Write a sequence for this structure.
């Protein structure tokens, strides 16, 4: 890739950065109170929110991490993103419209309110910071990669400039700025990923180049000859896929920056349809990126090209430059910059809101709204600067860190959110126990494996095989479910006012005790969770261990 | 049927379908590998659709278009329940 400064790429990137800042300043005019700043006055429509969610979903991991993962993991990487795409519909049916009706600003406020506990709200802020920082550093690192490898500028400046630009437009424009920027960035990304992929497929002689998601089938016979194991789903144990399912389905519900988007829409109906729109768009983009990963493996195998594995993260750009030319590379770079900005913005927003609204606001409840608004602006600025500085020491592969964030969020937040919506009997003691167990059983392995550097198989034989650490989720999320249900049963039922919240979240204007209060759901959740853990450990050797 | 029960049942059915089609679909490909692939060590896919091995095609389509349709149906039904019951 570029050793010298890549001028077209710099022009395209500066254009994206400049428009983003302009949108931020324009959105400032729309912001007059805290609801405007945190949730865009709850005025966003389904289409706008669908596009904003798309750009939030397509972080730099889509442009950088996924192709690297496909080159390492073939079918396995595609399976991860397939589950991630489907997870949006799980979030739709289990959480989205109900969270919107709750009228909170953040996940932490929802947990504090639903589980009638100030301490749980404060604990949620701490967990949110861990999850968001993990997600954030991966994305800011991506901006550094773009600057260094694609634009010929030092990674340090990429991290600094990317971090500062987002900090400015989030601080100035609040959620209005973030939302309209995310919509703009979605359009840039769709254009910047789809067109270069079409050009790449066309250059490889594929007739179906005009529809990348399903257009590369004619390359399959050659691929089966040169890399026969590309399509093998069985090089991992079925537990691996169960982990992916649990991590993505409950992780997306647990990630506070995703959930925050539902608090911005007009009503539950808009929340529902925005998720459907987002799922369709995410599917198009992800399926197109699978085509790039496929083309990357195909290109290396058929052309005899060897690329240093350290640069697999950059494969979209390597292929674009080789097969489409530098003009298209500039566009792809602009798309990647847009992808990074949109995700970082969402994370900054939730971190700022969490610290001011859910931490300071809880400790100092009598602070005036004007003072809170001013404080939100300054704290957002401070969070942006600190996050940028943290990101100066980024992880090696960015998708790995994001996957850990999904697992931790699923266990610590996904579980109490789902049970809090669907089970009236869920108590604050149950939620606290479930959150703590979920967080510790997913965060401690992260520290041991990724920070201390332990081999996953040293921690547990169960973690063997390709990306074995992913399987950690197969017990952390079920364990959080079991603990939350059991402790809730053993403790005093929530007060009537809290139980009424559950009916209201589901849209009922009257109250009936029997709604969402049966025994079938909690029993089923515990049975499925126990089976999942048993399947993971006890039944582990029932299946053959092909390819491991 | 009572609106609450209708909401619960439809949600359970749709969620289960989403889990089967988008969540744990690959588990079936592992467990039923003889159905999708010939015997090892070659493991050649039996059936192709649009050039893709059947299991890969199913993964692409069900986890994207399949779940989007399920989400659309669920949202439509919930819109109707909202109008009728609340």
């Amino acid at each position: 890739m570029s050793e010298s400064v890549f001028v077209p790429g710099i022009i395209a990137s500066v254009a994206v950065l400049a428009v983003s800042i302009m949108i931020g300043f324009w959105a400032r005019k729309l912001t007059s109170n805290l609801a405007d700043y945190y949730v865009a006055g709850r005025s966003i429509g389904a289409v706008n929110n669908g596009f904003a969610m798309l750009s939030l979903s397509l972080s730099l991991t889509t442009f950088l991490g996924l192709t690297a993962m496909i080159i390492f993991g073939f079918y396995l990487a595609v399976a991860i993103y397939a589950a991630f795409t489907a997870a949006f519909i799980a979030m739709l049916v289990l959480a989205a419209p109900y969270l919107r009706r709750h009228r909170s600003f953040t996940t932490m406020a929802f947990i504090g309110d639903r589980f009638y506990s100030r301490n749980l709200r404060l604990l949620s802020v701490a967990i949110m910071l861990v999850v968001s920082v993990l997600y954030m550093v991966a994305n800011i690192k991506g901006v550094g990669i773009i600057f260094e490898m694609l634009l010929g500028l030092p990674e340090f400046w990429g991290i600094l400039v990317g971090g500062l630009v987002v900090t400015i437009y989030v601080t100035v424009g609040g959620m209005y700025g973030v939302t309209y920027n995310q919509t703009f960035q979605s359009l840039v990304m769709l254009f910047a990923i789809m067109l270069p992929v079409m050009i790449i497929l066309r250059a490889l002689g594929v007739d179906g180049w005009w529809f990348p998601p399903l257009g590369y089938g004619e390359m399959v016979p050659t691929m089966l000859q040169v890399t026969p194991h590309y399509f093998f789903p069985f090089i991992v144990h079925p537990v691996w896929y169960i982990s992916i399912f649990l991590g993505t389905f409950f992780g997306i519900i647990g990630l506070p920056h995703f959930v925050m988007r539902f608090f911005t829409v007009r009503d539950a109906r808009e929340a529902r349809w925005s998720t459907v729109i987002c799922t369709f768009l995410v599917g198009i983009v992800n399926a197109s990126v699978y085509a790039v990963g496929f083309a990357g493996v195909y290109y290396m195998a058929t052309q005899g090209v060897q690329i240093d594995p350290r640069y697999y993260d950059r494969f979209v750009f390597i292929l674009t430059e080789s097969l489409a030319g530098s003009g298209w590379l500039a566009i792809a770079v602009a798309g990647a910059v847009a992808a990074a900005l949109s995700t970082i913005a969402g994370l900054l927003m939730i971190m700022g809101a969490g610290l001011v609204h859910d931490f300071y606001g809880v400790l100092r409840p009598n602070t005036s709204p004007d003072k809170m608004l001013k404080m939100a602006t300054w704290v957002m600025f401070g969070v942006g600067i600190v996050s940028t500085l943290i990101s100066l020491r980024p992880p090696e592969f960015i998708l790995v860190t994001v996957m850990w964030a999904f697992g931790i969020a699923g266990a610590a937040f996904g579980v109490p959110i789902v049970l809090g919506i669907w089970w009236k009997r869920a108590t604050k003691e149950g939620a606290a126990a479930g959150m703590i167990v979920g967080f510790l059983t997913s965060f401690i392995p992260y520290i041991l494996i990724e920070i201390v550097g332990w081999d996953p198989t040293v921690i547990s034989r169960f973690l063997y095989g390709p990306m074995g650490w992913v399987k950690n989720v197969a017990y952390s999320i079920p364990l959080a479910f079991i603990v939350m249900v059991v402790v809730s049963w053993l403790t005093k039922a929530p007060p009537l006012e809290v139980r009424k919240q559950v009916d209201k979240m589901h849209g009922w204007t009257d109250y009936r005790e029997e709604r969402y209060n049966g025994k079938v759901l909690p029993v089923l959740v515990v049975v499925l969770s126990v089976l999942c853990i048993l399947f993971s450990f006890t039944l582990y050797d029932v299946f053959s261990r092909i390819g491991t | 049927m009572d609106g609450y029960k209708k909401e619960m049942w439809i949600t359970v059915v749709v969620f289960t379908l989403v889990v089967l089609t988008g969540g744990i679909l690959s588990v079936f490909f592992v467990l039923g590998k003889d159905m999708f692939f010939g015997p090892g060590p070659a493991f050649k896919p039996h059936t192709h659709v649009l050039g893709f091995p059947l299991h890969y095609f199913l993964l692409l389509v069900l986890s994207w278009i399949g779940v989007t349709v399920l989400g659309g149906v669920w949202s439509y039904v919930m819109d109707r329940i909202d109008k009728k019951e609340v």
Observations:
- Residues 1 and 149 of chain A are 6 Å apart (CA to CA).
